[in-house]
Amino acid sequence: MFAVSQYGIFVMYTQGLDQQGSGDGKQASARDSEREARFQERIDGEQKIEPRDWMPEAYRKTLVRQISQHAHSEIVGMLPEGNWIGRAPTLKRKLILMAKVQDEAGHGLYLYSAAETLGTSRADMIEQLLDGRAKYSSIFNYPTLTWADVGAIGWLVDGAAIMNQIPLCRCSYGPYARAMVRVCREESFHQRQGYELMLALCRGSDAQKRMAQDALDRWWWPSLMMFGPSDNESRHTAQSMAWKIKRFSNDELRQKFVDTTVPQAEYLGLTVPDPDLEFDEATGHYRFGAIDWEEFFAVLKGNGPCNRERLEARRNAHEDGRWVREAARAYARKKSEKAAAAAA
Amino acid sequence: MAEQDFPLWEVFIRSRTGLSHKHVGSLHAADTQMALQNARDLYTRRQEGVSIWVVPSAAIHASDPAERDAYFDPADDKIYRHPTFYEIPDEVEVL
Questions:
Q1: Is A182 within 8 Å of A245 (Cβ atoms)?
Q2: What is the pLDDT of residue B76?
Q3: Distance of residue A252 Cα from the nearest chain B Cα, in angstroms
Q4: Which of A182, A253, A344, B5 is a good FRET partner for A234, with 20 to 30 A between their CA atoms?
């Protein structure tokens, strides 16, 4: 029998692994490769891996890295949009934006929960975010300068996220796949409200239309970068595909995004800021210009327009909330002591 | 050293009356009341439920996946537990 420990269910299992390492090395590695073969068989047979199942340490590590980065992105992603809640032009738009930002918080929490089932505590993951060790999606290090940016984020950034997340609903790791099903179901509203907002601006005054075009100009390339480095640069792709964590390569998803988004921009009457963009009749795909990867890696390294601001906002929120967490703990303790005294 | 997190709770939701509660995920909360309120905000923002259970994760005990075969195989060869095992002539109705 296994106790379900308070740090996600599986601390016991990782302890089991440690003990194994101290035994006879050769025997352990033979057993491991046999286990690994059986594990890969299950994956190839499209069976889901569940938290307490045996898994190679590298699979666990890859998932913890990916799921926690994903969770951090949802949490940091609240900041650029939260910036406009107080300045939304109508009550309707304000309610929509609040609901969307609340969803992002929810997505972050589903994902932290999924990562915790791999034996990493949420407190540790948050600490890694706050001290700058953990990464999150580079897109959230760009500023939201105008109201149209709220529309562009919903349409492009959430659109790109959906493209990326739909295949993750079939990810080999059960808890991650299940979290993605919930996220995708909710994400569709995010993209549609963004497009509708852009549509409203594009049907408005010249100044409003210019604002929409300016937002597309600034968000287009960073949105394409969201899919990550191109396939020949991506270190993790091959292994992640073999493990069925990933179902499509970065470039495949990016191409799909361009193919679906360009006609949407045309419908709005906006121009995609890429002089090389061209529909290729032969392949049925759009050919697009070269991505500025130097910018991508600079933002990833911490030198984007808002990296410092974003982390500082998260740190302040964490510090400012400390007294609330302490009060909640004190209140819980007091109540349980009272209940114990009454029972005695 | 990271700040100690609130205890972990497993959340079960009855999506409509007449159905049983189903596990939907987990969350951290300081006590029962906050666990219920957080579960409402986290797992029922779109009318997903009419009733919520929260259970401290530490109170759940599970079977060992390594012993799955030994545990569940004995049910494999007992085909006589299924109605299709029995041959009944077609002429016999309502059986």
A1: no
A2: 80
A3: 32
A4: A182
Start-to-end Cα distance in chain A: 32
Of B25, B45, B58, the CB nearest to A6: B58
pLDDT band at B3 (very low <50, low <70, confident <90, very high): confident
Residues in chain A predicted with pLDDT less than 70, given as ranges, are 1-26
Q: What is the pLDDT of residue A11?
A: 31
- The ipTM assigned to this model is 0.87
Q: How far apart are CA A259 and CA A254, in angstroms?
A: 9
Q: Which two tokens stand for residue A269?
A: 């009457």
In sign, the C-alpha dihedral spanning A255, A257, A260, A261 is negative
Q: Test B3 with A123 for CB contact under 8 angstroms.
A: yes
Mutate to test the interface with B, among A6, A31, A116 (most CBs of B within 10 A): A6
CB spacing of A328 vs B57 below 8 angstroms: no
* pLDDT for the residue numbered A65: 95
Residues B29 and B38: beta-carbon distance below 8 Å: yes
Give, in degrees to the nearest 5, the angle at Cα A74 between A68 and A76: 100
pLDDT digits (tens, 9 = 90+) for A118-153: 999 999 999 999 999 999 999 999 999 999 999 999
Helices (DSSP H) in chain A: which residue ranges? Answer: 11-21, 25-44, 57-76, 78-82, 91-116, 122-130, 148-152, 158-168, 174-202, 206-225, 237-242, 250-268, 293-298, 307-320, 322-343
Could you tell me if A106 lies within 8 Å of chain B, comparing CB atoms?
yes
Neighbours of A230 (CB within 10 A): 15
